Amino acid sequence: AILTDTGTTLPATLATIAAYIDTEVAAIPTTAMRGTDSAALASVLGALDTAAASGAVSNAKLAMAYLKQLVTKQLNATDGFAALKTLIDSTQFTGPMSYLDAGGEQTVRENVLGTRRRIWLNFSNRNMTQTGTFRIYFKVDGGNYDLYVEQPVTVGAGDERAFDAEFTVNQDWKLTYEEDVDEGAARDIPYNFIMQVIE
Q1: Most buried of 12, 40, 51, 108 (most Cβ within 10 A)?
Q2: Are 157 and 177 within one domain?
Q3: Exposed/middle/buried for residue 52 (C-beta within 10 Å: 0-12, 13-18, 19+)
Q4: Whole-model pTM?
């Protein structure tokens, strides 16, 4: 259709367009301004820095002052790139915890916090032979644990054995397990949790 309408083949048309682009790029004064020559760009910045230092060019001085402020902010330990990475990063922890034969309510995992965290938690009673209860506690007043939620678990064929929880806290929390009937031996409780800072 291109040949019929214009009398020009597709390759020839594309070559013409490419030539137009080359002409426009060539019209840009320097490779540094085109962004295609890092060394030239560094040279331009160096010249600006020299001019700024001598006070010879007020615009260059102002430009370099802004550039240096930007770099300083980026490298700042409090609110620069490294600090931002710390906020974005998440941390993961993996069990298992050995539920001792002594029985009673035992702590599977406790997390002591001083800042806001988002928690994704999963745990399982897959190794248990008796029924029991998982519990999650929060320190809502900074000193005392209060029960947040509990999950009774069973061990029958086809019963649910894996559980999860998601919550946001700014104080300590813990996950516990308590058997209903003596297990007769220590047994591992698998768990995983991911923690992300949301300060």
Answers
A1: 108
A2: yes
A3: buried
A4: 0.58
